[in-house]
Amino acid sequence: MLKKIPRYYHRFGLPAEIFVEFLKTHKPCDFVFIQTVMTYWYLGYREVIREIKKHWPKTKIILGGPYTKICPQHARNLGADFVWDEINEPAVKRRAKYDPAKVLAGLTRTPTTGVGAKQLPRWELYEKIETAAMKITSGCPFKCTYCVVPLFCDSFSTRPIRQAIEELNFLVSLGVKNIAFYDDALLYKSDEVLKPFLRYVIENKIKISFHTPNALNARFIDEKIASLMVKAGFKSFYLGFESKAGEFQKQTGSKILDNEFADAVKALVATGANKNSIIAYLVFGHPRFEIQDVEESMKFVSNLGVRIMLAEFSPIPGTQDGELAEKYVDMKEPLMHNKTAFPIILLGSEKVNRIKDMCRKLNEQKSKS
Ligand code: B12
Ligand code: SF4
């Protein structure tokens, strides 16, 4: 499928032998819950299901997570007994000898770290843990045309501050040194949970490095929140910018404008953030590439003194931009959602390499200056 793409592909994660050895040396469980993330990682999920079925044939497998929500039809053919999103459908209940929703409800802990979860994740099950991920909000109020989050969740909510602090203290007690936020809109309504959370960290002199690999919306960064973040120990600030071009911003959801982005950088720097720790994501290989003006956008970011990271476009079924991508790839095949494939199919290797070179050079100039 991806033979024409000049990239090497491999599966993330443990070597298969370690997992198979685990299955062989442990008593079969009644249920196995599998979380998925990227749609185009499905070959890995299938491999896991196959091995479980082979070694633990009576075990029931339940599959959940973003891939099952984005590609429910595809997920149903992967070999699991149930897909989380279909778990409440009457047809599934009839097919099953038991009601899977009741089975899940009967478990003392549901396998969730969602903001609505009543109990904390079982972080203590790790033998040694230095880095963890947290979520203190759920959903996003924006509707960007390339993003599936608005389809996952039609409202925004925050986690009770007491519970967020409880999880933080639990992680600290386990020796965690780094926490990455996996929130989609961490800075939205920050008075409700983020600000009190950061004040707690500062007042209690908690020594944790915080990270935001899943882009922050720079529109919400002013000196107040920037100062709290810097003081609380944020070590990297990944900001979603995507493009400087007004028309592109307008057509894709207007989550941020260039002047707002520049103001956010100013606020971060003014409150003590190191410029090298500020990184702007620019979407790359988007179907509206013609109006995105990626070169000008890179220069704009570079002139602000911060680093650029090209976020290669992964087309997602169900989104508006996923529909645009149908012109170029078969969207029913999740491998074609791979972020390393789509930009090359759209623009060709030569152009992709040229733009990546330009990005590298601008970032190098930055680190020298
Ligand atoms: C954190 C995150 C990242 C992180 C870490 C990813 C990783 N290695 O795990 C980083 C920043 C690195 C990242 C990178 C990318 N990401 Co990302 N990411 C996310 C994000 C925000 C959260 C995923 C997560 O782990 N959440 C925490 C977990 C606990 O929540 P959850 O999986 O939803 O699980 C809940 C339920 O689903 C349920 N559940 C889950 N599993 C199961 C299983 C069972 C059995 C049951 C019962 C229930 C259940 O319970 C959980 C708690 O409520 C999602 C958006 C989102 N809101 O889902 C995008 C998302 C998955 N990413 C996306 C994209 C586009 C990307 C990039 C391609 C961006 C880019 N252009 O570079 C890259 C790809 C990286 C790669 N290597 O290929 C897309 C998906 C694309 C796709 N085709 O699949 C998403 C959906 C965001 C979007 N904007 O549309 N990402
Ligand atoms: S602001 Fe971010 S999370 Fe929200 S819809 Fe846009 S890309 Fe998705």
Can you give keywords for this protein?
single chain, 369 residues, alpha/beta, TIM Barrel, 2 domains, three-stranded parallel beta sheet, 12% strand, globular, binds cobalamin, binds iron/sulfur cluster
Task: Describe the protein.
- With about 375 residues, the protein is an alpha/beta fold.
- The chain has helices spanning about 15-25, 40-55, 65-70, 70-75, 90-95, 100-105, 150, 160-175, 195-205, 225-230, 245-250, 260-270, 290, 295-305, 320-325, 340-345, 350-369; strands at about 30-35, 60-65, 80-85, 130-135, 135-140, 155-160, 180, 210, 235-240, 280-285, 305-310.
- The protein has a 3-stranded parallel beta sheet. It has a 3-stranded parallel beta sheet with strand order 4-7-8, with no helix packed on it.
- α1 (about 15-25) packs parallel to α2 (about 40-55) and α10 packs across α12.
- The protein is globular and about 60 Å long.
- The structure holds cobalamin and iron/sulfur cluster (SF4).
- Iron/sulfur cluster binds near residues 142, 149, 184 and 240.
Count of beta strands? 11
Helix-and-strand structural type? alpha/beta
Label the overall shape: globular
Q: How is the CATH topology of the largest domain named?
A: TIM Barrel
Question: What is the CATH-assigned architecture of the largest domain?
Answer: Alpha-Beta Barrel
Write down the overall mean pLDDT.
91
Ligand inventory reads:
cobalamin, iron/sulfur cluster
Spatial order of the strands forming the largest sheet: 1-2-3
Number of domain modules: 2
Largest sheet: 3 strands, parallel
Span between termini: 43 Å
User: Which H/E pattern describes the elements?
Assistant: HEHEHHEHHEEHEHEHEHEHHEHHEHHH
Helix content: 40-55%
Radius of gyration: 22 Å
Q: Report the top-level CATH class of the largest domain.
A: Alpha Beta
Low-confidence parts: 108-113
Query: How many individual helices?
Result: 17
What portion of residues belong to β-strands? Answer: 5-15%
CATH homologous superfamily title of the largest domain: Aldolase class I
